[in-house]
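Reply to dn_fold:

You asked what the input looked like. This is it:
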Amino acid sequence: MTESDNGRGGARSRVKATLAVAAGLAVLSGCASPGEKDALRRYAQAETSRFEMPDAPAPVLKEPPRIDGNATIDDYVRYAFLNNPGLKAAFRRWRAALDRIPQARFLDDPAFTYEYSLDRRDFLHRFAATQTIPGVGKLGLRAREKLAEAEAAAHEFEAARLTLYGETVTAFHEYDYLRRATGVTEENRRLLADLESVVQAKYKAGSAGFADLVKVQVELDRLNNELATLSDERSARSAELASLLNLPFDGPLPWPVMTPSAQGLIPDEGLTAILRDLNPELKALDAMVRRERAAVRLARRSRYPDFMVGAGLMVMPGMEGGADETEAGLMAGISLPLWQGRYSAEIREAEAMLEAAATDRDNMENALKAELKMALFMTRDAERRMRLFGDSLVPKAEQAYEVARQEFSAGKADFMTLIDAQRTLLEFKLMRERAVADREIALADIGCCIGKYGIPLRE
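and this is what came back:
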């Protein structure tokens, strides 16, 4: 073996070693970090259980929910979790964010070049393969950025699910209030129909005037109009609820089955702390703050050079008709970060984005605290109205109506006194039902603020 052959053999060995190093770097850049594995595991768990309500007070059944005459609020919420298009979109955005992590971890594609000389007297073939290698720590910081974005997407999905929960609960209880308001109005219409029969009998007997008969008929027409309005509203409320469930608008949904939440005191002194720990919107913004911190560190690394390694092979024609000769070589390069003004601007941009992300997080926490205070007020106000109308005003209005009815029948009271008593009774009953719906909606608002689906009530 000649010295030239030894040189070529050594060159080939160096080429193989360089390619092996490049392959090793590619493999290492493709290794998933523990944080990424945890994120993928969390996604896989959510994919099979995203229809469930974390921290729900009642156990979740595994069979698919159905929307029929026996459906409860839990059935409606679970059905929405399974079928709502907006929630599905948020879930796929989470998947997309996870798939950006390996894209950031991997090295850029290597480059392969081939050159062929057109000189007939001295043609040659030149092959070269090069790989760019980012400066130390840059790949890890890029992956950390994308991991933080994936964490934010996970929390944004949970925030979307919590928002859907609140919207579904609100639409459900508005629909249920419409059912109960319709029932109360129909009950009062029956009372007036009975009263009309009494007035007609008294009118025929000459003990009641024609004006009384007209007044009761006017009241009946008014209630008939209210019932027609409630019937039309049912289509609109049903469509609102169906849109959340991704159901077709081919007719009103069946009336739901509603069980009021237990009464009790809400331990609001600890709700703000729960909000800070559990609210998914705050967690998403926390993740974005971590993302911007990684971006700042990456921007500072932009002042440091990147590297390039490569290997080449050149085939040349032999001398005086001899065999072709080959030469192998190794290449190495380094980028020159000369434009420091650009890098300084990049760092300032990243630092400004970090400050903006932190400020957005603080602003969101302040807004959520204000929403929580309002939801607590609405809950307590609704509870006061429930007690006022349920325990006091409605029973008294019923008593007043019966007294007025008896006195009118006995000729001791005029007809307008009876009509006023009937109107008051209807109004108080509707306000009692409105308070029940408002309390359930306010409890859901509290849950959406603090990040929980069930609110513990203290006796």
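The CA atoms of residues 285 and 361 lie 5 Å apart.
Hope that clears it up.
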